[in-house]
Amino acid sequence: MEIVIVEWRVLLQSDDLVPPVLFFNISLLTKCDIFVFWVLISMKKEHFYSNLEDRLISFSVRIVDLAYRLQMKPELKSITNQILKSGISPALNYGEAMHAESKRDFVHKMKIALKELRETHISLKILYNIGRVPFKDEITSLKEENNELLAIFVSSVKTAQQNMLKQQND
């Protein structure tokens, strides 16, 4: 059986599709396989991830990539270091929250991740408004993902706090 590597970014000339994947020889695919393949290539990257942890890790990697490119400009060293710390922290804190010792500990760690996302949001806004920064499209995309993650965390913290109150009243 022949294996074909399909890189959708190259084939479709688009950066907003899912990353490369291994796929079997097209002639050996069933109609169901072709449908699944079509669904995958039509999915946006941000909706491809099966869980929040994967999404946070992807966001962190994108922040590291941005920081790597920004480090070439010495005048941006301070904000680059700051965004690197705050941009990676939500994934790490979420990982800790998933193994919290109590519901209260869970809420606390989720709030820390939320604070770091807010800090990252402000840093991205500052970077976007600096005229000399050439990566405006990437920063815009990161700001959008950051906003979506903020909404998820705000909702999660609110729900967890409501559940804690409800449990205390029972």
**Binned strand content:** under 5%
Q: Quick one: biggest sheet?
A: 2 strands, antiparallel
Radius of gyration: 20 Å
**Helix-residue proportion:** over 70%
**How many angstroms separate the termini?**
60 Å
N-to-C order of helices and strands: EHEHHHHHH
Number of DSSP strands? 2
The number of helical segments is 7
Could you name the ranges where pLDDT drops below 50 across 5 or more consecutive residues?
1-49
Strand order of the largest sheet: 1-2
Written account of the structure:
It is a single chain. The protein has 170 residues and is mainly α. The protein is 72% helix and 5% strand. The protein has helices at residues 8-12, 31-42, 45-48, 52-70, 77-97, 103-129, 136-169, and strands spanning 3-6, 21-24. The chain has a two-stranded antiparallel sheet with strand order 1-2. The model is unreliable at 1-49 (pLDDT under 50).
Question: What features would you highlight for this structure?
Answer:
2 strands; 72% helix; mainly alpha; disordered N terminus; 170 residues; elongated; 7 helices; two-stranded antiparallel sheet
